[in-house]
Amino acid sequence: MTERIEGHGGELALAALRAYGVREMFTLSGGHVFPLYDAAHKAGFPLYDVRHEQSAVFAAEAVAKLQRRPGLAVLTAGPGVTNGISGLTSAYFNASPVLVLGGRAPQFRWGSGSLQEMDHLPLVAPVTKHAETVFSADDIPRAVAAALTTALTPHRGPVFLDFPLEAIFSVGDADPPAGPAIAPIEADPDEVATAAGLVAGAQRPVVIAGSDVYAGDAVAALRAAAEALEVPVFTNGMGRGALPPEHPLAFAKARRVALRSADVVVVVGTPLDFRLSFGDFGDAKVVHIVDAPSQRASHVQPAVAPAGDLRAILSALAEYTGDRVDHADWVAQLRTAEDAAKARDAEEMAAETDPIRPARVYGELRKVLARDAITIGDGGDFVSYAGRYLEPAQPGTWLDPGPYGCLGTGMGYAMGARVTHPDRQICVLMGDGAAGFSLMDVESLVRQKLPVVMVVGNNGIWGLEKHPMRAMYGYDVAADLQPELRYDQVVAALGGAGETVAKAADLGPALQRAFDAGVPYLVNVLTDPADAYPRSSNLA
């Protein structure tokens, strides 16, 4: 018989967290959660602290996304929790299995006006899969285990627990949690067969694969299905890199051509949202493959929408033995369009203009980024170019804010990525607007010896707002930032290093110095404010 676990609330929570594969804690110090720190300290459990709670949640989300396991953020009561809600919401939209543990004012004094007394649950419930207050130390392991099981069950997502002071500080005992046992969701075999038949019988099929393909560990199955059915593949989110750029069925630049001509569009592991024209592909039939029935689109009617384990569904497509159409001519047609677009992009990425065009920044980055580098996008205008010009070579190497579009992910994502991959290049791409949200957490990276490279596209404006507003009204307001601001000096003042680059010819050497530095290093690139957002961006 397994011995029961004993200890204060923090120790009981830690036992359950470890059973579910959690290996680190991200936090900002707060007295309401001291027992969790005490448990981590005594057990040698890694603890990383930040300067704003949103960065703790974003760091936990980066771990969850990159490692396909739960990420943990610990936030103190009241403002600690509310400061983390944007991170929770991003995790909700991104289907990231993040657990946030919150402190809570003592229950025995509830209503008396204790420090930071508030009921968090009504705020976090709409953006989590599960939210609960745990009132007893004995109940903490059960609650943590149940929450993590919910977070890991497709469709994955964040969960929240908070502990009143008397619960987390009290001593208790409980049965040890057994660890995760997530049963796969089995898709309707008739729906899977229908989907396979539609793809095989199409004249011009296209696959668009998204983040859930990576999260569901279905990358190999996607490749097998694409190769077996000879279907061109486009990707978004963490689906990027599922097929390396040199794969004959991997496409990035010809999406507009493909979707205008396709007769069957297969969308796998990503919602039919604004990034995909809300699922409207003209006369093409839509096959929407999702990891859970809850993810079926309600605003459009696909031809078929198999819901279940993505590996199993894609493997079934790969094993389809029915009649099929030869897609070689269709693939060749798209390859011609792809190659032409790449040639145009190559010219833009080599532009010698000063002020520097954003495309040139990415042309230089492509020369220094390793195939396994983790690239993080935190911004709007500047990062939209990253989606167009960077082509991840491996799965699990691309992090962006996702469909919620929340700025400020950069330093938290960087922390989680560096903790996950101590020996890889970590490169954060930020607009100068986005830099204002999280740059203070460079101090957290410096202090905890977590080197990353930051590249800021500094055009002195909110580009996604200034240009459209001027086009609509003939003027713009609230769209200007301080021109040529020295964000590199901010990083240097926080203990890192950096430099400002104003000429295109200086970009390459500056980026090389950044990756060689071994400390948080910011390359502040003065870009052309007249350069407009490229509407053909493949950020989606």
Question: Which features does this protein show?
Answer:
6-stranded parallel β-sheet; alpha/beta; disordered C terminus; 22 helices; globular; Rossmann fold; 540 residues; 16% strand
Describe this structure in words.
This protein has 540 residues and is of the alpha/beta class. It folds into 3 domains: 5-174, 3-Layer(aba) Sandwich (Rossmann fold); 189-334, TPP-binding domain (Rossmann fold); 351-526, Rossmann fold (3-Layer(aba) Sandwich). 39% of the residues lie in helices and 16% in strands. It contains 22 helices and 18 strands. It has helices at residues 9-19, 34-43, 53-67, 79-83, 85-94, 121-124, 140-152, 165-169, 189-201, 211-215, 219-229, 255-261, 310-318, 328-349, 358-368, 381-389, 410-420, 432-438, 442-447, 463-473, 487-493, 507-516, and strands at 5-8, 25-27, 47-49, 71-75, 98-104, 130-133, 159-164, 171-174, 205-209, 233-235, 264-268, 285-289, 374-378, 398-399, 426-431, 453-458, 497-501, 521-526. A 6-stranded parallel sheet has the order 3-2-4-5-7-6, with helices on both faces. The longest helix has 22 residues, at 328-349. The model is unreliable at 535-540 (pLDDT under 50).
